[in-house]
C-alpha cells in the first residue's frame, strides 16, 4: 500500500451516485440551478446530551484538493459520458459555505453547515463533507465526555492501533480539539501539531529477560538512561508492588511517573500511591490505561490518578462511531424543498441559528429561523449567532479559528451547559431546539 500524499486529489473520496446525478443534471440542464444544502443531525446518539462540531479544518484542506486530474478522470471515464468528464476536468467549487465554528456544540437539527452554489458544484461535496464531519464529530463528542469526567486531569489519546491507519491521526486531532492533552500518534504530531506522548510498552520490559529470569530493573535503567528520571515507567508487567519498588530504586524519588495498564485500576492506584509516598516519591504521577471510557474515568474520579490514557473507546466514538449527520438539499432557486420520507423528514429553506443564554452564561435554547428572515429577539436572554462565513466564492475566508482557538471554544461550550447537560447518564439533549418562522 502506498503512503498517502498530503496533496493528492480528494475528488474520489466520494460516492459514484453523486457523479451519475451530475451527468443527468448536465444533460437535462438543471445542473446550474442555484441550490442550498445543509448538514445537520436529526438526533444525537442515544442518550447523548450534546455534540461537538469537528472536522472543519480538515474539510477546508480537503476542499482545496478536490480536483479531477488525469488519474481521477481515468476512473470516472469508465462510467461517465465524455461531456461530463470534460466538465469535471475543470471542476472548482466556487460557491459559499457558512457553518458552526469548529469546536462549537450542536444539538438535533442544528444547521451545522450551509453550502450554497450550483447543484453541480455542491452535490459533489456530500460524501467528502459527511465522511469528515461524521467521523471527527463523533470522536470529539465522545472525547469531550471523557474530558468532563476526568475533571481537569491530564488525558492522552493512544488509540491508533484500534482504528484505520489514516483515521488514527484524524481521531487524535478530534480528541485534542475536545480537550485531550496529547496523543501517541506521530502523524497527528506532524500534520496537526498535537503534542506527542509515549514512553514504553510491556515488550521493552520483557526484552530484558534471559535464561536466568526477568530483569525488570535493567529495562528501567535503560529507559531512564535515555529519557531521564522524568520518564514514566510501566510497572505492571510482572508484580506491581515489586515493579514500583524497582522503579523508585532505579530512578530515585524524582521519578516522573508510573503507569498501570491492567487490573482493578482504582484499588491499584490507591496501593501504588501509598507505596510511592512511603518511598519518598510523593511527586511521582500515576498514569492509568487499559479499556478506559468516560464511565470508567468517572468511576476513578476519587482515586489518586494523575493521567488517563485512552485508546479504543475514544477512536470508536465510545459506542457512537458516527455523528449521524446528513447533507440535504433544502432550497432550489430560492424555493424551499424538503424530504418527507417517514422518519427522515427535513425542513425546507435555508436556515440560520442562534443560541440563547442567561446573563450567567448558561445556555437555555437553540433557535433556528429562516436565513432570509429577522433574527428572533429575546428580552430575557442574550442571543449569540452560531454560523460564521467559511468559504466565499470557493476560497476559505481569512481569520477562521485555528485548532487552539477551537479547543478553547469547546471548553467554553461545556462550561455553558446546564449542569445536567454534562451528566453521563442517558437523557434528553441539554437544551431544546426551537424552530420559528
TrEMBL record:
<dbReference type="Pfam" id="PF04095">
    <property type="entry name" value="NAPRTase"/>
</dbReference>
<keyword id="KW-0436">Ligase</keyword>
<comment type="pathway">
    <text>Cofactor biosynthesis; NAD(+) biosynthesis; nicotinate D-ribonucleotide from nicotinate: step 1/1.</text>
</comment>
<dbReference type="GO" id="GO:0034355">
    <property type="term" value="P:NAD+ biosynthetic process via the salvage pathway"/>
</dbReference>
<keyword id="KW-0808">Transferase</keyword>
<dbReference type="InterPro" id="IPR041525">
    <property type="entry name" value="N/Namide_PRibTrfase"/>
</dbReference>
<feature type="domain" description="Nicotinate phosphoribosyltransferase N-terminal">
    <location>
        <begin position="12"/>
        <end position="133"/>
    </location>
</feature>
<protein>
    <recommendedName>
        <fullName>Nicotinate phosphoribosyltransferase</fullName>
        <ecNumber>6.3.4.21</ecNumber>
    </recommendedName>
</protein>
<dbReference type="InterPro" id="IPR040727">
    <property type="entry name" value="NAPRTase_N"/>
</dbReference>
<dbReference type="GO" id="GO:0016757">
    <property type="term" value="F:glycosyltransferase activity"/>
</dbReference>
<dbReference type="InterPro" id="IPR007229">
    <property type="entry name" value="Nic_PRibTrfase-Fam"/>
</dbReference>
<dbReference type="InterPro" id="IPR013785">
    <property type="entry name" value="Aldolase_TIM"/>
</dbReference>
<comment type="function">
    <text>Catalyzes the first step in the biosynthesis of NAD from nicotinic acid, the ATP-dependent synthesis of beta-nicotinate D-ribonucleotide from nicotinate and 5-phospho-D-ribose 1-phosphate.</text>
</comment>
<dbReference type="GO" id="GO:0004516">
    <property type="term" value="F:nicotinate phosphoribosyltransferase activity"/>
</dbReference>
<feature type="domain" description="Nicotinate/nicotinamide phosphoribosyltransferase">
    <location>
        <begin position="155"/>
        <end position="341"/>
    </location>
</feature>
<keyword id="KW-0597">Phosphoprotein</keyword>
<dbReference type="InterPro" id="IPR036068">
    <property type="entry name" value="Nicotinate_pribotase-like_C"/>
</dbReference>
<keyword id="KW-0662">Pyridine nucleotide biosynthesis</keyword>
<comment type="similarity">
    <text>Belongs to the NAPRTase family.</text>
</comment>
<dbReference type="GO" id="GO:0005829">
    <property type="term" value="C:cytosol"/>
</dbReference>
<dbReference type="InterPro" id="IPR006405">
    <property type="entry name" value="Nic_PRibTrfase_pncB"/>
</dbReference>
<keyword id="KW-0328">Glycosyltransferase</keyword>
<dbReference type="Pfam" id="PF17767">
    <property type="entry name" value="NAPRTase_N"/>
</dbReference>
Amino acid at each position: 500500500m502506498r503512503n498517502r500524499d498530503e496533496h493528492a486529489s480528494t475528488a474520489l473520496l466520494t460516492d459514484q451516485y453523486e457523479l451519475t446525478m451530475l451527468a443527468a443534471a448536465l444533460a437535462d440542464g438543471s445542473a446550474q440551478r442555484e441550490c442550498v444544502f445543509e448538514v445537520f443531525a436529526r438526533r444525537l446518539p442515544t442518550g447523548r446530551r450534546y455534540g461537538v462540531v469537528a472536522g472543519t479544518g480538515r474539510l477546508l484542506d480537503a476542499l482545496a484538493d478536490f480536483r479531477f486530474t488525469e488519474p481521477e478522470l481515468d476512473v470516472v471515464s469508465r462510467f461517465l459520458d465524455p461531456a461530463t468528464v470534460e466538465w469535471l476536468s475543470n471542476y472548482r467549487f466556487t460557491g459559499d459555505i457558512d457553518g458552526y465554528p469548529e469546536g462549537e456544540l450542536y444539538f438535533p437539527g442544528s444547521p451545522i453547515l450551509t453550502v450554497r452554489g450550483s447543484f453541480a458544484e455542491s452535490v459533489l461535496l456530500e460524501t467528502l463533507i459527511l465522511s469528515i464531519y461524521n467521523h471527527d464529530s463523533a470522536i470529539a463528542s465522545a472525547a469531550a465526555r471523557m474530558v468532563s469526567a476526568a475533571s481537569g486531569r491530564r488525558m492522552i489519546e493512544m488509540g491508533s492501533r484500534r482504528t484505520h491507519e489514516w483515521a488514527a491521526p484524524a481521531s487524535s486531532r478530534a480528541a485534542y480539539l475536545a480537550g485531550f492533552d496529547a496523543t501517541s500518534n506521530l502523524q497527528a504530531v506532524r500534520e496537526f501539531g498535537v503534542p506527542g506522548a509515549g514512553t514504553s510498552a510491556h515488550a521493552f520490559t520483557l526484552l530484558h529477560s534471559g535464561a536466568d529470569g526477568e530483569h525488570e530493573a535493567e529495562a528501567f535503567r535503560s529507559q531512564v538512561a535515555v529519557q531521564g528520571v522524568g520518564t514514566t515507567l510501566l510497572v505492571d508487567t510482572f508484580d506491581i508492588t515489586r515493579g514500583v519498588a524497582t522503579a523508585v530504586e532505579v530512578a530515585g524519588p524524582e521519578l516522573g511517573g508510573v503507569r498501570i495498564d491492567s487490573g482493578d485500576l482504582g484499588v491499584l492506584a490507591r496501593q501504588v500511591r501509598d507505596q510511592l509516598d512511603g518511598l519518598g516519591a510523593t511527586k511521582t504521577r500515576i498514569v492509568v490505561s487499559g479499556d478506559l471510557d468516560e464511565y470508567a474515568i468517572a468511576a476513578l474520579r476519587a482515586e489518586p490518578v494523575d493521567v488517563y490514557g485512552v485508546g479504543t473507546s475514544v477512536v470508536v466514538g465510545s459506542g457512537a462511531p458516527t455523528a449521524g449527520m446528513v447533507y440535504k438539499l433544502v432550497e432550489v432557486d430560492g424555493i424551499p424543498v424538503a424530504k418527507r420520507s417517514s422518519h427522515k423528514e427535513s425542513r425546507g429553506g435555508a436556515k440560520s441559528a442562534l443560541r440563547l443564554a442567561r446573563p450567567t452564561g448558561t445556555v437555555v435554547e437553540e433557535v433556528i429561523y429562516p436565513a432570509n428572515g429577522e433574527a428572533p429577539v429575546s428580552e430575557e436572554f442574550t442571543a449569540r449567532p452560531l454560523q460564521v462565513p467559511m468559504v466565499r466564492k470557493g476560497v476559505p475566508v481569512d481569520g477562521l479559528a485555528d485548532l487552539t482557538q477551537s479547543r478553547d471554544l469547546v471548553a467554553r461550550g461545556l462550561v455553558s451547559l446546564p449542569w445536567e447537560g454534562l451528566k453521563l447518564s442517558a437523557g434528553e439533549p441539554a437544551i431544546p431546539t426551537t424552530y420559528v418562522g
